[in-house]
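Look over this record as teaching material.
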Amino acid sequence: MFTTLYTLSAGLLWLAALPVVPLLIFRRKYRHSLPARFLLWRNPPLKSDGLWFHVCSFGEARAIRPLLERFDPGLLRLSTTTQTGYEACRERVPEQSRYLPFEPLLWFWTRPQKALVVMEAELWYLLFHVAKARGARTFLINARISDRSWPSYRRFARFYRRIFARIDRVYAQTERDRERLEALGARNVRVTGNLKFAGIPRPTRRLSKPEGAYLVCGASTHEGEEGAILEGFRLLKSHRPEAKLLMVPRHPERFDRVARLMEGYAKLQGWSFSRFSESESLEADLVLMDRMGELVNGYAVSDLVVLGGAFEPVGGHNAAEAAQFGMPILTGPHGFNQREIFAGIEGLKIVEKEELPGAMEYPALLEPTKLKIPGDPLAPIVEELYNVLQG
């Protein structure tokens, strides 16, 4: 009865949303994803009898790659909900990567698979119900419940118990996550650590760093963070004129807006500004990295990293990607989604946004970071999936 009512409710929401879809597809980030998810436009079902991995976005699609590499590519089926996630999935599995349809459409779209493996917090009721009803073993991996979201989970605990009743095994990031997940009805929960420690991307090429330059990387920044980074860089550059700033916004739809901000600031200070996509040069005082997939290459040549996503209440980003290179890293206090990763990095400096300019002014006072690598968090997941394949 619950599944029928839920499907009918989701179907009504789908019908109500249809008139809005044509308006949103003019926005670049929704141009392909919304027609695929709401109308199944150029979004055919995945091939049957494989290992179906579902991730939300670009970061998760990258983080799951080391797990995908443990299996025959012919078995892999990938789905995602965002355009950047889809592009990252297609890099790995070009023929069997799809956008996840809106929930009521899953009844028509889902084919039998050997397993469904969902990353982190993509807790869609019909995703698990339909996959399990059609024979898949169901897994939730890298599972986490942040301090910020925990009250909401508790408020809807009865609903989440229905979801977890359809998940066969859960792999959690921390003991605290395990306790919270079990309180919501999760079964067979095992703590394996954060998979992002296993999926730290390595540089794909060597960027040309200007001779003698002190390079600051403002990484994965969000609205409201670039201004504080620019002010901190101004203070730093007054002492170190050879300093240069590489700014890397988290979302590509913000590239043009951040470019206008940086260009205006450069004119005010009498500095040079360039977009990396136009010159692939780091020679200017301010450089906007407006090309996806280059962040780790920027980290590799940076002397100081200011990691965004935590100066505003966003949840933080994966500091391990930068810490592998050992430079000082500054980030903010709102890293509630990266609790374990932040704890696994020695020397990581956490400051309020108002304190950031002062912290950037004298980087010689900051400690270099050191990454504490845990054991292989993928091993128990790989073992379980091989058991599924064998039997």
About this structure: DSSP finds 19 helices and 16 strands in the chain. The two ends are 32 Å apart (CA to CA). The longest helix spans residues 2-17. The domain at 2-198+377-390 is CATH 3.40.50.11720 (Rossmann fold).
